[in-house]
Design goal:
With 434 residues, the protein is an alpha/beta fold. Helices cover 39% and strands 15% of the residues. Strands 4-5-13-10-11-12 form a six-stranded mixed beta sheet, with helices on both faces. It has a four-stranded parallel beta sheet with strand order 8-7-6-9. It has a three-stranded antiparallel beta sheet with strand order 2-1-3. Strand 7, helix 6 and strand 8 form a beta-alpha-beta unit. Helix 13 packs across helix 14.
C-alpha cells in the first residue's frame, strides 16, 4: 500500500465517530472500508448529532470559508487538514425565463456547472474523499469514473501532491478525457461500460491497496454530496424547498441531498418540512426509473445505451435507497429519451444562459415532463440540480444548435444575413406554436 505519515495541521472537534451499516446497523472503526463484514450492506458515516447541536449555529457556518468547508462539522474528517480548492458555494439561480416557459412561479437552478476546480459536483465528493485519504495515510488515489469523477480526482490529487491513477470507459467524450489528462495522472481507458470498469477497480483496490474514492473510501466520498443540500437550505434563507429534481446515476447524490436536509433539521438549523424528491434518468440507462414505474423494491441491472454517459450506471449501488426516498417523500422518478436530453440542454441554455452537460439536460427534461404531467405545483419552491458543465459534452449537441452565418466584411452582407436569421427564427417559433 502506498502510504505516507500525515501530521495533522490542527486537531478538530469532530462529531463523526464510526462507520455504520445501513442494513444491519453493525458499527466499525472509521477506516478505509465500505462493505459490512456481517451482511455485506453498504457503510455510511455515523455522527454525534448532540455534539453538532451544541456547537454549530447559523452564525458559525456563515463565518466559515466560502466553500464546502463552512460545513466542516458535518463532514467526516478527524483533523482540520482538509483540501480546500474553493469547491462549493455555487450559485442558486432564481429562474425567470425558464420558470415562465414551464409555468412555474418559484423555480431555482442549483448551478454546479461552475463548481471548482473541474466544473462538476464531483469536486465536492473528491475534496472530502482525498482529505480523508490523507488522514488515513494514502499517497496513491484512484477512481472508477464516467468522466467527471476522473477530472476531479486527477485535479485535486495534483493540487494535494498525491499520486493518481484513474479508470474510465474507453468511449468517453473527448472533453472529459482531455479534462483528466491535463493533470498528468495515469489514465486507464477500459474497453467496457462503467459497471465493467468498476468491477476491475474493485480487484485493483484489493490487490494494490490504493485509496479508491468511490470504493474503499466511498463512505467518506459520498458525504460530500450533502453539501448540495446544505447550500440550498442556506441560500434559501435557512429554509428547505418544497420539491427537488436531481439526476440519478448510482443514486448517491440524490440520497445524500436528502441526508443533508435531515441533518440540518436534526441540529435545529432549519425547520422541518416535507420536501418531495424527484429523480431523473435517461431512458437508455434507467434502472431506477423502471423499478419506480413498475412498483418494484429492487433494481434490475441494465446495459447502458445513452448519450447521458455521466449518469449511465446500469447497476446503481444506491438505487434501492433512492427508490425509498422517492416513495416516502411522495416524489417521482422519470426517464426521458436522448432527444429530450438534448432539448433539455438547449432549453436551459437559451432561457437561463447555463450550458449544462447531458446529466443536466436529463434533469431539465424530466422537470419539464413532471410539470406537463401536473406533478409539480406551480407555487412550489422547486430546485433543479445541475451537476456538470456542457463544455465537457459538446458532441451531444453538435448538429442540433445551428451554424454560424459566414459573411463578407460588408454592411450589405450583414443586413442580408440578419434578415435571413430573423426569418428562420420566425419560422421556428411558428412551428412551436403549431
Amino acid at each position: 500500500m502506498s502510504q505516507a505519515t500525515i501530521t495533522p495541521k490542527t486537531q478538530a472537534s469532530t462529531a463523526f465517530t464510526k462507520l455504520k451499516c445501513k442494513e444491519c446497523g453493525a458499527e466499525y472503526e472509521p477506516k478505509a472500508m465500505h462493505v459490512c463484514e456481517e451482511c455485506f450492506g453498504p457503510l455510511e458515516v455515523k455522527y454525534d448529532y448532540g455534539t453538532l447541536r451544541r456547537h454549530v449555529t447559523r452564525q458559525s457556518i456563515e463565518a466559515g470559508p466560502k466553500s464546502i468547508w463552512r460545513y466542516r462539522s458535518f463532514l467526516p474528517l478527524a483533523t482540520d487538514n482538509y483540501i480546500d480548492v474553493g469547491t462549493g458555494m455555487t450559485p442558486l439561480v432564481k429562474s425567470t425565463r425558464l420558470a415562465r416557459r414551464l409555468g412555474l412561479k418559484n423555480l431555482y437552478i442549483k448551478n454546479d456547472a461552475v463548481n471548482m476546480p473541474t466544473l462538476s459536483f464531483k469536486d465536492r465528493v473528491v475534496s472530502v474523499a482525498l482529505s480523508r485519504a490523507r488522514e488515513l495515510g494514502f499517497s496513491t488515489v484512484s477512481c472508477a469514473s464516467t468522466g467527471n469523477l476522473a477530472n476531479s480526482t486527477a485535479a485535486i490529487a495534483a493540487h494535494a501532491g498525491l499520486d493518481c491513477c484513474v479508470f474510465i470507459p474507453a468511449d468517453l467524450e473527448a472533453g472529459k478525457v482531455m479534462g483528466t489528462l491535463i493533470y498528468n495522472p495515469t489514465l486507464m481507458a477500459v474497453k467496457g461500460n462503467y459497471d465493467q470498469v468498476n468491477r476491475l477497480c474493485c480487484e485493483v483496490a484489493n490487490s494494490h491497496g490504493w485509496g479508491f474514492v468511490n470504493i474503499n473510501l466511498r463512505p467518506y466520498y459520498s458525504e460530500g454530496s450533502k453539501t448540495l443540500g446544505f447550500e440550498v437550505a442556506e441560500q434559501l434563507g435557512w429554509q428547505l424547498p418544497d420539491h427537488v429534481v436531481a439526476p440519478l446515476a448510482s443514486g448517491s447524490l440524490y440520497t445524500k441531498i436528502y441526508k443533508g436536509f435531515q441533518e440540518f433539521v436534526k441540529v435545529g438549523l432549519v425547520e422541518d418540512k416535507s420536501v418531495r424528491f424527484s429523480g431523473a434518468q435517461a431512458e437508455g440507462c434507467s434502472p431506477i426509473a423502471q423499478a419506480f414505474k413498475e412498483g418494484r423494491d429492487f433494481i434490475t441491472p441494465v446495459k447502458p445505451n445513452t448519450i447521458a454517459k455521466s449518469i449511465a450506471i446500469g447497476n446503481p449501488a444506491d438505487g434501492i435507497y433512492a427508490l425509498e426516498i422517492a416513495h416516502k417523500t411522495n416524489g417521482n422518478i422519470e426517464s426521458v429519451t436522448d432527444a429530450e436530453v438534448i432539448e433539455g440542454m438547449k432549453l436551459l441554455a437559451e432561457t437561463e444562459g447555463i450550458f449544462t452537460e447531458t446529466a443536466g439536460g436529463t434533469t431539465i427534461a424530466v422537470l419539464k415532463k413532471l410539470v406537463e404531467a401536473g406533478k409539480i405545483d406551480p407555487d412550489e419552491t422547486t430546485v433543479a440540480y445541475i451537476t456538470g458543465n456542457g463544455l465537457k459534452t459538446q458532441e451531444a449537441v453538435q448538429g442540433y444548435v445551428g451554424e454560424p452565418l459566414v459573411i463578407e466584411p460588408k454592411l450589405d452582407n450583414f443586413e442580408q444575413a440578419l434578415e435571413r436569421a430573423n426569418t428562420l427564427d420566425r419560422l421556428e417559433w411558428q412551428q412551436v406554436l403549431v
